[in-house]
Amino acid sequence: MMFNSRSNPDINRKPLARLLSAVVLAAIAGFVIATAYKALLAPLHVDDFPEELAVKAELLPVTFTLHMVSGALALVLVPLAILLSGAPRWHRPLARIAALDVVLAGVTAFPVALVAPVTRWSAWGFAAQGVVWLVLLGLGLRHIRAGRTEAHRACMLLMAATMTGAIFFRVYLALWAIFAQGRHYELFYAVDAWVAWSVPLGLTALVLRQQGNRRNSAP
């Protein structure tokens, strides 16, 4: 019996789906790398900063530079460590480097957030992001040392989701600049400081919970 691919449209759709997935992933990776690269070079271009960041860079020259550089590296190191989780030879050393980098980025986030803030609410939003980031890292390390790999993976994914706040914050701020034309700047900045990281964190937690429910209900 001759097999006819036309009778099974899923066969024809799979290559297209893989291609679309690859394109989307490549676009996301490119955007993350571009954001990380821009943040990595930011301390060299302080004169181009908006006023609220220029003040922080002036008051905290060392801390601000450490935060920008370590945060930029985290945008690359954390996803790489997660992608290489199936290759322990590469994952373990990279994960250790990423963890140290996350600690540095998280600790330096507090003075950068709280010194000369745009608003009090925005400062606490950034500080809360740092707290959540460090707590999830600590929980992830605790789980992996106890051999709970699934719980470790969940914590690392949640930590990565929290980290994307650095990207979404800039995206939302750019969209606000385009469409709001400068109106209600302080209010939007404060909201953005909370929404940018809490929404990805909440969505990731929801997806992980649904995956856990499906595994538990599987026969």
Q: How would you characterize the overall build of this protein?
A:
The chain is mainly α and 219 residues long. It has one domain. The protein is 83% helix and 0% strand. The protein is built from 8 helices and no strands. Helix 2 packs across helix 3 and helix 5 runs antiparallel to helix 6. The longest helix is centred in the first third of the chain and has 33 residues. The protein is globular, with a radius of gyration of 20 Å. The protein starts with 8 loop residues before the first helix and ends with a helix. 26% of the residues are buried. The mean pLDDT is 83.
Q: What structural class should be given to the helix and strand makeup?
A: mainly alpha
Overall pLDDT: 83
Oligomer: single chain
State the shape.
globular
Summarize the biggest pleated sheet: none
Contiguous low-pLDDT stretches (5 residues minimum) are: none
In percent terms, what proportion of residues is strand? under 5%
Amino-to-carboxy terminus distance: 35 Å
Number of helices: 8
Number of domains: 1
